[in-house]
Structure formats: C-alpha cells, structure tokens
Design a protein that fits this description.
By secondary structure, this protein is of the alpha/beta class. The chain contains 15 helices and 24 strands.
Length: about 475
C-alpha cells in the first residue's frame, strides 16, 4: 500500500566565510531542525564560500579545517564559491576535497587541460532518501579571466545549468540548483529554467526570510557568516504525485548555541592554525607605522611590494588593506596574516595619466579615505588613502578637492595626462570599487595566486626595504 503524504526537509547554508565561531551554533540549529523532521528524510546543503583565508583556521590548515567542519556537520552536497575556486591553487583543491564525505557539485568549472571537471567535482548528483530521488546540480560565479590563470575554464553558468537540468528532470522527483551566482542571476534562472523546485543561492549574501516563488521555483538565500539557516519542506500526497513546496523560511542562529562535536573540533583547528602561522618570515629593527588617512611607512612598504612584484614602474594601492602598524622584531606569517587578511592579488593595468591624477586627487579627500568597502575580497574596514611607489606628489592641503592642488612626477618627469603608464595595482580596483578611475585601465594582467601578505613577506626580506619605506612620496608644499 502506498504511503500517504511524503515529506522531505531541505536545509541550506551559504557564505559562511570561515566564521568558525558560528559553526557550532549553526550545527546546533541544524540539529534542532533535524529533530523537528523526526524520521522524515532531511538533506543538508552548502552553497559555497564556506572557506575564507582571512581566518587563522583556514589559512593555517589550508582549508582542511573547513572540510572537517563540513564532514562533521553532515552535509549531503555542497558547491564551491569564488573563495574556494580562486584563492586555492588547483593542486591544493584536489588535496582538500579528496577528504570530503559528500558530493561537490558544480557544472560550469572544467580543467583547461582536459575539458572535464576535476576528479573531486561532479556536474550533478542524484541523491536518494527513503525512495525519493533528488537531483542536485550547481554553478559558481564565472570569473573567467581569473579562473583561466589557475588552469580552469569557466563556462556560462546558465547554459551549463540548463543542460544539467534537462538531463536530470526526467530522472528525479525533486530538482535542486546550488547557485553561487547571486540573487539577480537566480531570479533569471528561475524565469528561464523549467522543472526546478528550488534554487538555493549565495554569493550576494542575500537573506530571503521566505522564498521568492518565480515560475514555480523557490528562490532562496540564507544571508552570510552563519547568521541564518534556511529550511524548505516539500510534500506530496503519494509517490505518484509531484512534490510541492509546503513551507520555506530562514531561521536566525543564536550565537550562544553550542553542541559537542563542532565546538571542540573548531578549537583544535584554531590551535593548529596558530602553530603553523607562527613561522618567522622576517626580523625587523623598527616599527613601521600605519596611517590609513595619509602617508605612512607601512603603506609605502605595501606599495613597494606591489611595484617590485609586478615589475611596473608605478604602483597604486590603498592603505586600508593594512589593519595596524607592523611591529619591530620577530615577524611571523601569522602577524602578516592578521595585518593584511584580504585574499587580494596584484595586477598590472595600462592607465592614462589623467586617471592616475584623478585617483591621487581622490586620495586627498576624506570621502574616499573613510569610504567603507564590502566584498571583492576586501577584509579591511575603510578604503584608506593611496600609497604609491615610483611617484612623487606635491600637494597643497589648502586647495579645494580636485582643484589642481597636486603636482605629480614619474621618474622625475611631470605626469603626462595623455600618456599611458604601466601601473601595478590591486585586482579589486578593476571591478570599479574604491578608486574608480583605476578601473579605466586596459589590458589587465592578474598575478595569481600570491596574496598581498605574500608580497609583503618578499619585500620584508629584501635588503633596504625598510629604509625605502620611510622616504616620502607625498610632499606637503604648504609647509
């Protein structure tokens, strides 16, 4: 006799970004939702950016801590976000995901050398719970130019997802997309793809208290940093009937919640991460002060590091990448990680002199120096002033903003506003965030996989770098 009213619970998280302090509370909330479901089947899925190398646990274990958390929490399927795909080398990802105990589902990332997904990734998975077949496919944001530098080919996610959905729909009772593409893309997918029961979203950190129902598809998102857990409940009258969404909502996670598995494991990973990052990378004989609102030696050191690494004659970086002054004495990998946590890479662009001047003029305004920046890999608090190398700027703080209050020299010659200069800078600027005129640069050459803290490490080990950082690039001509 056919069992009446079949129910399946689907729990989802996204964009946890290595907030390990929330992983035990999240696991406790998931346990509560499992208990509510009782003997009925439950699926748990994560939509990417679980990892973020700003955290000691992730940086010190190269992501193994996150895989451990995923396994211990009991996920049934996950996809990758840009923080997994773009901040770890391919070889490291293979090692990482070799130990995961659930399918990693993503259909739009292929190895450039083979045209196929890596061995640890599947274009889709068919999961079975109590006789119910659930088809799961996923896709991640296609930063094609970045992925190509790491040996990946990033396909158009919509085309790749349509192919997988058409393949899966006839085989399954429920069809789910794990989308690390962002809410606007999810809404378009829901309008254009047929037979999809739910799009579980991430990337844009959107929190939808209840799902948006578009063309019969539940579009969902559970915020960021483990602050929410999403739940969908699907029901059908019997095996011969289709599943329908009975309810959907996001639950706030109480940070004071704990459980007995994730909490001690996270503490061990924190301890291990600190031990690994205790490696000495340099010994300095002086403190390098930081001033995010003006010129300072530590900001200059970062600009030097970017100029030397990129080989460009000029470099422009924002001092907000640095969080505090660099102390004197024993400098460890952990200190550099704490002072420069953003997973941001250097790049080279071809930039007109007038765009360089514009950015420098903006750097003299409080509006830009104190601007809060979110996303694009930035893990600081404010944009900060521009630190430079290869330039000399004479400025008058009494001049009105943008009132030709600066004189700029490159290699001793006045800046030619119509000339094109090769400039070493940061990848986040090319997305037109921060000092927007830098995004006018052409022929961007992104230099992966080293982060800014890796460049600082190299520069600290270069003889004479500390002395150079104390030489002024910005000269106040009103004094």
């Amino acid at each position: 006799m056919e069992r009446a009213l079949q129910r399946l619970t689907l729990i989802h998280t996204n964009d946890i970004h290595s907030h390990f302090e929330m992983m035990s509370p999240v696991a406790a909330e998931i346990a509560k939702l499992r208990a509510i479901a009782g003997d009925e089947p439950v699926l748990l899925m994560d939509i990417g950016d679980h990892m973020d190398r700003f955290s000691v646990e992730t940086e010190g274990t190269m992501g193994q801590a996150n895989i451990d958390m995923i396994n211990l929490t009991g996920y049934d399927a996950v996809t990758i976000g840009n923080n997994e795909g773009l901040t770890f080398p391919r070889e490291m990802l293979s090692v990482l995901y070799a130990g995961i105990q659930c399918p990693v589902v993503c259909c739009n990332i292929l190895e450039s050398s083979t045209g196929e997904p890596p061995g640890w990734m599947k274009r889709h998975a068919i999961l079975e719970k109590d006789g119910t077949k659930i088809g799961v496919t996923g896709a991640t944001a296609a930063f094609a130019s970045f992925y190509s530098l790491l040996g990946w080919e990033a396909l158009d996610p919509e085309i790749a997802l349509r192919e997988q959905c058409e393949l899966l729909a006839p085989q399954v009772d429920l069809l789910i997309i794990l989308s690390h593409l962002g809410l606007p893309a999810d809404r378009r997918l829901a309008e254009q793809l047929k037979g999809v029961h739910a799009i579980l979203g991430g990337h844009t950190h959107h929190m939808l208290e209840t799902p948006e129902i578009i063309n019969g598809t539940a579009v969902c998102g559970a915020g960021k940093f483990g602050r929410y857990v999403g739940r969908l409940i699907f029901e059908r009258a019997s095996a011969s009937h289709p599943f329908e969404l009975a309810s959907g909502q996001c639950f706030p996670v109480d940070p004071s919640l704990t459980e007995d598995v994730i909490l001690p494991a996270a503490a061990l990973h924190l301890q291990h991460g600190r031990e690994v990052l205790n490696e000495t990378v340099a010994i300095t004989d002086r403190e390098l002060a930081l001033d995010t609102q003006g010129e300072s030696p530590f900001g200059n050191l970062l600009a030097q590091a970017v100029r030397r690494y990129t080989g460009a004659p000029v470099s422009l970086v924002n001092s907000g990448q640095l969080l505090e002054s660099l102390p004197a004495g024993n400098i460890t990998a952990g200190i550099l990680h704490a002072l420069c946590p953003s997973p941001i890479n250097a790049c080279v662009v071809q930039l007109k002199g007038e765009d360089i001047r514009r950015a420098l003029e903006q750097s003299l305004t409080e509006e830009y120096r104190t601007k809060a920046i979110f996303g694009y890999g930035f893990r600081g608090e404010v944009l900060g002033s521009l630190a430079v190398d290869g330039l000399k700027i004479l400025y008058d703080p009494r001049a009105m903003p943008y009132d030709n209050g600066i004189a700029v020299f490159v290699a001793g010659e006045p800046l030619d506003e119509n000339a094109i200069y090769s400039v070493g800078t940061l990848d986040m600027f090319t997305f037109r965030t921060g000092y927007e005129s830098i995004a006018n640069g052409t022929e961007p050459l992104y230099l992966l996989p080293h982060f800014l803290r890796d460049l600082l490490r190299m520069e600290l080990q270069r003889p004479g770098s500390l002395e150079e950082s104390e030489s002024l690039r910005w000269e106040n001509r009103s004094v």
